[in-house]
């Protein structure tokens, strides 16, 4: 190659090397140390750590909480995006800001507010206690805190997608005689499916991995109110490092799956937006 | 010689953008690089500017070999198709950029810089716009800022990529004339890329017609139109009728009609295309050895000339087009279905493609 | 813009073109109130019960002040560190093709996908005195884990994707031609970067900084393992809130929470106006 760009290529290689070092240091090493810590004392101990009853109970609770929180926020996200994206009304942008609010709140405060509301000294706590219903230091509190921290994920993905699509498609469907539900299922949903899936993936990852908010409301009762991340903390603080890393490796797996799914959805959504052009060169007419 | 290009080659992956191009551009010339999209014209321009590096060949600017130099060291003014104005700088700062980034030793002092910028602003007729930002300008004004920005570095050559492409039709026509006048004033060697033949014919001293990474023909407007070097050139520069004929012993035959082979034709025998411009296809009342019959299918007045479509009843030629001035028209009103005889007044032949 | 907005409002009022506005808005407001607004209002309610003097006393105790200084200070430093390294990553990913680029691009979001507790123990294990990295730093007298520097490391980790993902789209949209224009006018690569590229990226970089800062201020899980949590030295505000809750000091927890909330909202406001500015610039 004849050309002026050798120095440019050296600079470029240096930048790439720098970026790879940063990525290695901050993104790859933490993953490797968890995985290596998990199997440091052999596979049998690893398997024993993740199949121990308390770990299984934590896994079960994490899945249960996620199975409640994600669908609720999914439905909310779709409904909120529908009214915000498809209609104009005063206070719309304020509503968007309010929906994003939980993102700006420290996880600890997200737990605290439910303690203030439902705790023994809380506003509704004593009254609920008389009715024999516990929220704080019990599963309902964990569910509520999880819903709070994952509240905006689906909505904030869907709102821009639905806004960009406008209302022409829906209006066309209605003018052709479709009912509101038919319009939603057949016209709106296919258009937003990638945004929806993307939001659900992020929501799911956060729901399974949430630590701070859940930690405040859980009470850390082993086998009862411990989620996987809380279980990791307990094991770690008890200096059972191998067991802690073993359970953490499950969450690393979750994170990696999340990244794969997210990348896949992004690629699909990109392909839907930019389909391969039909090759039709501007040939001259005969 | 301002620009000397020898055997210039460039590939992008599996796509060859230029196959060994040779080109000389004279001092003070205004040259158009013309061709369909993908012909390599923009690549050639970017290679001259040093924005791409060549795979092989050489480029000399004013006798200096610049092949291995980057754009920064070539002293070439480049006007981008979408202008590429710096959006966070106002008109003044955009134009001053090329002076401000000079090494301290050659950087003009502030008063001198101001004077230079203002002179160029006047030259491109943007007085009073100096404080505006690119987003506050019309397309034509942006185009002139881009030009001013390129001119302030007193470039060896000025290169313009589709300079009128992003403008609407009327502004385009005005800017075309203006650029031509500006060039006559400054006499800086200029090369511009266009896919629009009218633009090339209207503005350029000479035209380089490119196709598939090769130069098809270099010449002025008349040479290209009247003596096309290939049927591609004939087709690209204006409408042309292509009639499938055969060539033997210096005689072109189409059905029962015959014509002599024009001097300088490269093809000697075999299947050929007889290429005739619509305005060179005259009519005669009577059949003759050098005319062929055709049935009128449509005739309309286009203001200044008639345009007539005719069916020549030849295999593979659904219609031919002829253009006649009022005085060339037959004495009676032509109707669809009338039969006339067509006689090519000037023509070229090329070996039949494919 | 205004014209189309008015137009569509009137269209909605006249024909009510799409169904479901009332129910969907109603459900949105109800769910939002139950899950977010009413619980958050508890902070205000509790804090107001406290009275101004008690509130100030709680918030201005030396330990509380130190924790606020640490939380906001470390978040600020981490966000500042994230600007150059986030820019580097975004630049390389969006500009240069290299093997493994897509992998790096996907990994950028790891700090968002990885539960914070896992990040916390992983970073601690890396930087502790006997850890993979700590063992090389300890002989040099550099201790990162269990010091405020450890907090900064954790916050750099959690904030990184915010800077990269804010800057990346701007870098991808930037007209490469502007940089070529600068080059053809004689600018050196450094001049091109400083005078042409950086001003274009700056607003996004600032937004990314603010997002990383906001995230860092409230961060809990990844910090508490590596911080050492010594009161006055490496105790962050969220941890102090938890400690006070465990000691049934609801008033103290609430007061601190209110201060943090106000700080976060101020940041949110800043971010929103930054983004509005960004969008405005993009439209021009």
Largest sheet descriptor of chain A: none
CATH fold assignment of the largest domain in chain B:
Rossmann fold
SSE order of chain B, as H and E?
A: EEEHEEEHHHEHEHEEHHEEEEEEEEEE
Determine the N-to-C terminus distance of chain A. 40 Å
* Averaged pLDDT of chain B: 90
Look at the helices and sheets of chain A and give the structural class.
mainly alpha
Low-confidence stretches of chain B: none
- The number of E-state strands of chain A comes to 0
Main β-sheet of chain B, in a few words? Answer: 6 strands, mixed
- As for the number of domains of chain B, it is 2
Strand order of the largest sheet of chain B: 6-7-8-3-9-10
Content of β-strand of chain A:
under 5%
Q: What is the multimeric organization of the chains shown?
A: heterotrimer
**Top CATH class of the largest domain in chain B:** Alpha Beta
Number of helical regions of chain B: 8
Shape call of chain A: globular
What helical percentage do the residues of chain B reach?
Answer: 10-25%
In one word, what is the shape of chain B? Answer: elongated
Helix content of chain A: over 70%
What would you note in describing this structure?
The complex is a heterotrimer of chains A (286), B (354) and C (284). Chain A is mainly alpha-helical. Chain A contains 13 helices and no strands. The radius of gyration of chain A is 24 Å and the shape is globular. The two termini of chain A are 40 Å apart. Residues 280-286 of chain A have low confidence and may be disordered. With 354 residues, chain B is an alpha+beta fold. Chain B has two domains: 3-226, P-loop containing nucleotide triphosphate hydrolases (Rossmann fold, 3-Layer(aba) Sandwich); 239-351, RNA polymerase II/Efflux pump adaptor protein, barrel-sandwich hybrid domain (OB fold (Dihydrolipoamide Acetyltransferase, E2P)), CATH 2.40.50.100. Chain B has eight helices and 20 strands. Chain B has helices at 41-49, 91-100, 110-123, 139-151, 169-186, 197-203, 221-226, 231-236, and strands at 3-12, 15-25, 30-34, 56-61, 64-65, 76-79, 157-161, 189-194, 206-211, 214-219, 241-248, 251-254, 257-260, 270-276, 281-284, 292-301, 306-311, 320-324, 339-344, 348-351. In chain B, the strands form four sheets. A six-stranded mixed β-sheet of chain B has the order 6-7-8-3-9-10, sandwiched between helices. In chain B, strands 13-12-11-14-20 form a five-stranded antiparallel β-sheet. In chain B, strands 15-19-16-17-18 form a five-stranded antiparallel β-sheet, with no helix packed on it. In chain B, α2 packs parallel to α4 (139-151) and α3 crosses α4. The relative contact order of chain B is 0.12. The model of chain B has no long low-confidence stretch (mean pLDDT 90). Chain C has 284 residues and is mainly alpha-helical. Mean pLDDT of chain C is 88; it is low at 1-15. The A-B interface holds A 1-5, 8, 281-282, 284 and B 36-38, 50, 53-56, 67-71, 73, 235.
